[in-house]
UniProtKB/TrEMBL annotation, chain A:
It comes from Cohnella zeiphila. It comes from the Bacteria. NCBIfam families: NDH_I_M. Pfam families: Proton_antipo_M. GO terms for cellular component: plasma membrane. It is found in: Cell membrane; Membrane. This is NADH-quinone oxidoreductase subunit M. Coiled coil: none annotated. GO terms for molecular function: NADH dehydrogenase (ubiquinone) activity; NADH dehydrogenase activity; ubiquinone binding. Belongs to the complex I subunit 4 family.
From TrEMBL, chain B:
The keyword Cell membrane applies. GO terms for molecular function: NADH dehydrogenase (quinone) (non-electrogenic) activity; NADH dehydrogenase (ubiquinone) activity; quinone binding. The lineage of its organism: Bacteria, Bacillati, Bacillota, Bacilli, Bacillales. Its EC number is 7.1.1.-. NDH-1 is composed of 14 different subunits. Subunits NuoA, H, J, K, L, M, N constitute the membrane sector of the complex. Belongs to the complex I subunit 2 family. This is NADH-quinone oxidoreductase subunit N.
Length: 536, 511
């Protein structure tokens, strides 16, 4: 049944429809606007869940794929002489959506975190009629990123997340919001620019195909991801055969490094991380839920989809570099997280540390590692969304999240404190909660290939225990300050997402094959390629 | 062979003749009308003239298509190629006429007596300026082009000075006259060298004669081209020849600023395309060194313009100067397709140029129209005039956001697609350094253009006076904003159309 409707398009565009609907509503009625936004966030989630229920890993997502030509632009055919029999010479950008075991978990994550974040927007107190359209537009961008199968379409959706985020940070953020918004814009803009250059190199080489038809030869440059994969594997393709469209070794390396940096900024890895600290501390919590929960995962997704899958040779020889970067991220994030006085910064640095684990998973270049990377991405998305949800609730009541100003909250807010403790334990990787599975799979994958690096990386888990417990315990235990006595416990609309996210974290912790089964065949092509490379 | 102008040739000059007739008629009307009658009538008259000229241009396009279908050449030479009707010229003429029509429409109701004492003059001087621009894009002979350039220059010198009582305006006009004169001198000097070595001013003949002349006059040819490059760089305000632009743009009345930024720049660009493609791109034959050097120089100039323009705009607090510097960067972008080597596989240098020019017309005129409204209500042209525009005029703020996204090259706008298209060509021809600079400056430009957005959405605005919108200006703003978005989502019809009309061999291998 799902195959008969354009389900992927619905997932992508329904939030945009929601944005239009909210634009038509009266601007004082915050409740109405909020519930509209919630509804338009829930519907794509439900569609995603239906897709999840009917998805068959062995068949892949081919049945749901959507093809359409968005643009077919004529190029200067006079560049070719008449003797070559060229009938058309075009640049084609397609509207291609597709789903597979790599993107489905992230689509689900987007649905869940967006919905929870929509519930958490009760803490937004001004300019709702501007907030909700942007919030929904952001969702369209995120779904599009995970579903697009054309590099230009991917890029457009990627950029589409930029503008709403800039506004969401810059208008509704805290004291340093404008600075944070600017830094977000510049770093991510730089990432996009680098990415576009990489993509253009790919379009001009891997994207080129010549089709022999009855009338003559049709030459097409296309951004289609599947065309690129096919050309990559085909030794006779123009990109592999030399000539003007030859993707030479140097060019391959250039594109590889460009894309690595582009997604590395988003992830973020070590020297490119400062923007995300600012966003974590200055953006409103419901936006940080999305930022930390989903936007960082666009980096993970990009690294796997475009860097690992399109450049098997390069990733093979750079695996130690990636693993080292991962270890640096883990330790750098973890150690600095131990020294923070602001809880939001503890979480920000812990995100850096956790994204390091994702890098390790990718660098392992085996199925366990890749699955671990995605698992870790999903799990970290849920956990950090939960943590920032709580941060938002606490800030609403206390006006601060500094560790030295809080303390003993367990007495006045037992429920919230309990959830906070659970989330903290999940974050430090307690077995039985989702964080553990992701870390375990990633380390296991890497241990196969790089034993020493794994050993160093695992140290990060020790630090995680230190910073999480130090942060969480400082807030919920210890002497309670007078002024926190009368705090009100979480309202229903805040408690609902807290319980839901906690339940999911536990579920993924005890039943990991829920996700790992999905991913089973997602990496087949790459693994085969890697095996032939290392000689079986 | 000596050819003379006959009556039948007037058909090929019809758009220009219409404009000239309207100029004279409106000037006389201005003289005859009593003072108490508002001069907006003359503005509407000018608008009618522009539209009528546009109709004739479309008619020409239609005629050329008919000839093409009949298997004949899709161009016409008048006076031995000194005037040339082809689709390169026609498309650019449409762009110039459309841009001028938008500018005139935007000024109806915003140009006030206090600023421009003789309003009628403003409207009927803009018409001969357009004739000049059209001559620059529609000729195969350096002299005719030069005459067109002077016509454009001299009328715009007056237009810049039209705010008689303002010291700033007078200063701007003086600077513009001096730099404009210098630029003309450089161009003419360069042309004279080309004439010296080839004995002709006709572009096609120069193209044929150059390879032969190269052996003996190599240095002269370099001098000729580099003098012309300097002259055109001054006209186009390409860095490092751009220092006059912010002052002149700031001093001129905003509609004139828009005209300088869009039409004057586009016309100079058209002339550069004509001259360089006809004489240098194809004609140097096997000895490609000269050609490579020239196009490298253009590439470097484009890169310098992009870098300097955006870097200068970074700390700019005056909105008009900021847009002037953004114009410097955009001129650099417009020059990129030309600087790519045509001998390699190349997507399509003309559609890239004309598409980005169309995008630039829309975003620049739109942004300047918003600036006119906003600065009138605040009484100054600083960026802070935009403070809280979102609260005061939400729809105008939304339109401005779309225009800024287009300027910054964010999807899905005309600016994004135009840049993507140009970038693809640079990557395809392997000019990665140029692609990197284009992308790098684009990132920095986010910061520049978003300074408007910060003001509009994130700064106060409770105490600022409200914005009064006039209908013609509103129409212009919305046409530009909607056009910027629509061109971004559906660039295909435009590009298909351009591709169907334009052909390198008929329009550029001048015969």
């Amino acid at each position: 049944m799902l195959e008969d409707i354009p389900v992927l398009s619905l997932i992508v565009w329904l939030p945009l429809l929601g944005a239009v609907v909210t634009l038509l509503m009266p601007k004082q009625n915050a409740r109405l606007l909020r519930w509209t936004a919630i509804v338009f966030s829930v519907v794509p989630l439900v569609l995603g869940l239906l897709l999840f229920a009917s998805y068959e890993p062995i068949l892949g997502g081919g049945a749901y794929a959507e093809h359409g030509t968005w643009l077919s632009v004529p190029l200067n055919a006079e560049a070719w002489s008449a003797s070559q029999g060229v009938t058309s010479y075009r640049l084609v950008f397609n509207y291609l959506l597709g789903i597979d075991g790599i993107s489905l978990p992230l689509v689900l994550l987007t649905g869940i975190v967006s919905t929870m974040s929509a519930l958490a927007t009760v803490h937004i107190h001004k300019r709702w009629k501007t907030f909700y359209p942007l919030f929904l537009l952001l969702q369209t961008g995120m779904y599009g990123v995970f579903l697009a199968r054309d590099v230009v379409l991917f890029f457009i959706f990627f950029e589409l997340t930029l503008l709403p985020m800039f506004f969401l940070i810059g208008i509704w953020g805290y004291f340093g919001k404008e600075k944070a918004a600017n830094r977000f814009l510049l770093y991510n803009g730089l990432g996009s620019a680098v990415m576009l250059l990489g993509f253009l190199i790919l379009i001009a080489t891997l994207g080129f195909s010549a089709t022999q038809t009855a009338g003559g030869v049709e030459l097409v440059y296309s951004g289609s991801y599947d065309t690129m994969l096919a050309n990559l594997a085909d030794p006779n393709a123009a990109a592999n055969a030399g000539g003007a469209m030859f993707l030479s070794g140097n060019l391959r390396w250039a594109a590889f490094i460009l894309l690595l940096i582009a997604f590395g900024i988003k992830l973020p890895f070590f020297p490119f991380h400062t923007w995300m600290l600012k966003v974590h501390t200055e953006a409103p919590p419901s936006v940080v839920m999305i930022h930390s929960g989903i936007l960082l995962k666009m980096g993970v997704y990009g690294l796997i989809r475009f860097v690992a899958l399109l450049f098997p040779g390069q990733i093979d020889s750079w695996a130690p570099v990636l693993a080292t970067l991962g270890v640096i991220n883990i330790l750098y994030g973890a150690i600095l997280a131990c020294a923070q006085k602001e809880f939001k910064l503890v979480l920000a640095y812990s995100s850096i540390s956790h994204m390091g684990i994702v890098l390790l998973g990718i660098a392992s270049l085996n199925e366990t590692g890749f699955e671990g990377a995605i698992y870790q991405a999903v799990s970290h998305g849920l956990i950090s969304a939960l943590l920032f949800l709580i941060v938002g609730s606490l800030y609403e009541r206390t006006g601060t999240t500094r560790l030295d100003e809080l303390g003993g909250l367990a007495r006045s807010l037992p429920f919230t404190s309990g959830i906070l403790l659970t989330a903290g334990l999940a974050s430090l990787g307690l077995p039985g909660l989702s964080g553990f599975i992701g870390e375990f799979l990633s380390f296991l994958g890497l241990f196969d290939t790089w034993k020493w690096l794994t050993a160093i990386g695992v140290l990060g888990v020790l630090f995680a225990a230190v910073y999480v417990l130090r942060g969480v315990l400082a807030m919920i235990h210890g002497p309670m300050q007078e002024k926190w006595i009368g705090l009100k416990e979480a309202r229903f609309i805040e408690a609902l997402p807290m319980v839901a996210l906690t339940a999911l974290i536990v579920l993924l912790g005890v039943y990991p094959s829920l996700l790992t089964d999905l991913m089973q065949h997602g990496f087949d092509g790459l693994l085969k390629e890697l095996q032939t490379r290392v000689g079986g | 062979m000596i050819t003379t102008l006959t009556w039948s040739d007037s058909w090929y000059l019809a758009p220009e003749i219409v404009l000239a007739a309207f100029t004279i008629a409106l000037a006389v009307l201005d003289l005859a009308l009593p003072r108490r009658v508002g001069r907006d009538v003359i503005g509407w008259g000018a608008l009618v003239g522009l539209v009528l000229a546009g109709v004739f241009v479309c008619w020409h396009i239609h005629d050329l298509n008919v000839w093409k279908d009949a298997g004949k050449d899709a161009f016409r030479n008048v006076l031995g190629g000194s005037w040339r009707v082809d689709n390169f010229g026609n498309l650019l003429k449409l762009a110039f006429l459309g841009a001028t029509a938008l500018i005139v429409l935007a000024s109806l109701g915003t140009v006030r007596d206090r600023e421009v004492p003789i309003k009628g003059e403003f409207y009927y001087l803009i018409l001969p300026a357009v004739i000049g621009a059209m001559a620059m894009s529609s000729s195969g002979d350096m002299l005719t082009m030069y005459v067109g350039m002077e016509l454009l220059s001299i009328t715009t010198y007056v237009l810049v000075a039209v705010r008689k009582k303002s010291g700033q305006s007078a200063e701007a006009a003086f600077k513009y006259v001096v730099t404009g004169g210098t630029a003309s001198a450089f161009v003419l000097y360069g042309m004279s060298f080309l004439y010296g070595v080839t004995g002709t001013t006709h572009l096609a003949s120069i193209g044929q004669a150059l390879p032969g002349a190269l052996a003996d006059y190599r240095a002269m040819i370099y001098v000729a081209f580099f003098l012309m490059i300097v002259g055109f760089a001054l006209k186009l305000a390409l860095a490092p020849f751009h220092a006059w632009a912010p002052d002149v743009y700031q001093g001129a009345p905003t509609p004139v600023t828009a005209f300088l930024a869009v039409v004057a720049k586009g016309a100079a660009m058209a002339m550069v395309y004509r001259i360089f493609l006809n004489t240098a791109q194809f004609a140097t034959g096997d000895d490609s060194q000269v050609r490579d050097d020239l196009f490298l120089a253009l590439g470097v100039l484009a890169a310098a313009a992009m870098i300097v323009g955006i870097a200068g705009a970074l700390k700019q607090q005056n909105a008009k100067r900021l847009l002037a510097l953004s114009g410097v960067a955009n001129a650099g972008i417009l020059l990129v397709p030309l600087s790519l080597d045509l001998t390699n596989l190349h997507s399509s240098l003309f559609s890239e140029f004309v598409y980005y020019l169309a995008a630039y017309v829309l975003m620049n005129i739109g942004a300047l129209a918003v600036l006119t409204l906003v600065s009138r209500s605040s009484g100054h042209e600083q960026l802070s005039a935009f403070a809280g525009l979102y609260h005061r005029a939400p729809w105008t703020a939304a339109a401005m956001t779309a225009l800024l996204c287009s300027l910054a090259g964010l999807p899905i706008t005309a600016g994004f697609y135009g840049k993507l298209y140009i970038l693809f060509a640079t990557v395809q021809t392997g000019e990665y350094w140029l692609a990197a600079i284009l992308l790098g400056t684009t990132v920095v430009s986010y910061y520049v253009y978003f300074s408007f957005i910060r003001q509009m959405y994130m700064r106060g605005g409770e105490n600022e006076p409200s914005v009064r919108m006039t209908i013609p200006t509103g129409v212009v703003i919305w046409v530009c904003a909607a056009g910027s978005v629509a061109l971004g989502i559906f660039p295909k019809p435009v590009l298909d159309w351009v591709d169907g009309l334009f052909s390198l061999t008929t329009d550029f291998l001048a015969r």
